[in-house]
Amino acid sequence: MMRIAKFLARAGVASRREAEELIRQERITVNGEVITSPALNVTGEEKILLDGEKLPEVETTRLWLYYKPVGLVTTHKDEKGRDTVFDNLPSSMPRVISIGRLDLNSEGLLLLTNSGELAHKLELPANGWVRRYKVRVFGAVKDSDLQKMSQGVTIDGVNYGSVKAEVESKQGANTWLKVSLTEGKNREIRKVMKFFGLEVSRLIRLSYGPFQLGAMKKGEIKEVPQKVLREQLESSFEL
Predict the structure, then answer these.
(1) The one catalytic residue among 51, 78, 83, 103
(2) Do residues 61 and 114 make contact, with C-beta atoms less than 8 angstroms apart?
(3) Separation between Cα atoms, residue 196 and residue 225, nearest integer Å
(4) How far, in Å, CA of 72 to CA of 67, rounded?
(5) Counting beta carbons within 10 angstroms of the beta carbon of residue 192, is it exposed (0 to 12), middle (13 to 18) or buried (19 or more)?
(6) Would you call 103 a catalytic residue per the annotation?
(7) What is the pTM of this model?
(8) DSSP 27-85
(9) Does 119 score more than 90 pLDDT?
(10) Residue 232: predicted pLDDT
(11) Interval 86-103: pLDDT, tens
C-alpha cells in the first residue's frame, strides 16, 4: 500500500508535489471515483486514471547525469520563451524531471530521473546529501565572513543553513571558492554571497551526493548504470 501521490510519482506522471496538485484539481479518478485528497492509500491494482486516461506502466527507476550549460532554464515550460534543459535533451530520452535545479546563469551537474518519487527523496535536506560547487566571486573575501556562512544566516526573513566555503585560488579581485551545502534553497549560494558583499560571476556544480561531474563536457548526458545506481542508493531508498 502507498499514498496515491507517491504512486503517481512512481508512475512518472509528475513529482509528488505536482501529483498532489493534480488531485486537488480533481483530475485523478480511482475506480471511477474522483478523488480530492492525497490522503488515500492504493495498492496499484485499482483502475487509476489521469484526465480519463490510463497511467503509463511503472518503469524501472533510471538516473542520468547532465552537464547543464549556462543559458538554459530548468523547467519544462518557460513563460518567457527561454530555452530549457528539456528542449536540449536527446529525442531518445524518456520524459524526465530534474532533481533540484540550477538557475539560468549556473552550470554543472544536474541529475535527471524518470521517477518523481526518487526526485522527491533525493531533494530532501534530511538525507544529508552534500552538493559541492566551484564558485567565482568578485569582492573581498574575509575569513570571518566564511565562518559566519558555515554557521548559517538569515536573509530577508529566510533561514539559510550552513554554507561551507574555502578559498581555492585568487585572480586579482576575483576569488575561486570551494563551496558545499546540503540544503539548496532557490539561488541560495548567490544570495548568501551577496549578503556578505560578494558578487557571483560563475557557479559550477561539481557533485550531488555520490554523483560527480568529473570530466563531462557541457551539454553531455550519460545514464548511471543500474548496478551503480543500486549500489549508491540501496541503503537509503527503495528503487
Answers:
(1) 103
(2) yes
(3) 41
(4) 11
(5) buried
(6) yes
(7) 0.76
(8) -EEETTEE---S--EE-S-S-EEETTEEPPPPPPP-EEEEEEPTT-BSSSS-TT---BT
(9) no
(10) 84
(11) 999 999 998 899 998 999
